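quick one before i forget lol
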Amino acid sequence: MSAQFEPVWRALQKKVDSGWAPGLVAGIRHGGTTEYFATGVRTLGQPGKMRTDTPFRIASLGKPVAGALAASMIADGTLAPDDPADVWLPELAYPRVLTSPDAPLERTVPAERDITVRHLLTLTHGMGAIFDSTPLARAMAEAGIAPDPIPPAMTPDEFMHRLAGLPLEHQPGTRWSYHTGSDLLSVLLARAGAGPLRQILAERVTGPLGMDGTGFFADPAELPTAYRPGPDGLEVLDAPDGVFSHAPAFESLGGGLVSTVPDYMAFLTALEGDALLPAEQRRHMTSDQLNDLQREGLAEMVGPGVSWGWQVAVDTEGREPWRAPGGYGWTGGTGTTAYVNPSAGFIGVLFTQRLMAGPRENFNYFWEPLAAAL
């Protein structure tokens, strides 16, 4: 390891020593070289250590992978951004829209336009995470299709059936709403590719990039315990032999992917060059694709200075020392984060097994010392 990033590794070690999380793995790429750091254990009270190649549940860091997979299919003509989504998702045909976000479910009007592939890519199709207790929020939770760190416990067809029975919160194309569009995109990609999503992902992304540790489940002997913060300390969210230890019914790139830090670093490194996508599709994916009205939904969740490309956040301002306009990345609710800063020439990836306490929790304990080191 170089001395340059020693302060970063010390900061991460201090975080683990404090009991914040049992362990973590990080990677930094700068100046054409990559360094990794692993510390702590995979499960509290057990000796198994974190390793550089330890697999993690990466939650919403699967979304940029979905964006890249979709961009690949757009590049070869399998999809086009303005295709109606109901070509592959007939359950989305003729949607109804609530007269207001908090209206009763029966108070709807027809959608003013079709839902398109672009709407799913940019999370503007009209439905997603709802942070207020509205009739639609309650109905999504009761149906088992509300955003959650654990993927839907049903087949994609059943997910689509349940979702089709509910109205949209907003007119398609008018507002950014988190997550649900990513699950819909996952179903669409599998249907458009005429195969299981795992197979299409392997053919187009993980196979060519040698991402052997990335998939929809992992060996329970290698998988860390996932924890969430509770009133008396860390509580188990998912055990090593839990949900992510076997093939799921729903293969979701919105929140169901398992990966390693080196694999994810390989993905982002390829995304920065020409190894994964043609320049045009890469530019669309990693640049601002929202208008001012759509962006209001994103600003409510993450604040100003950030917009959205194809399944990934993009910086329109550089509001922290490690950020810059044109930078892109995202976080995962299970405690993962990744960011690419093309102007400063670095990529950072950090995987932990501790669930984020909320959308405002950050990873500044990693990014701040990294910015200082650079």
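fyi The chain has a mean pLDDT of 96.
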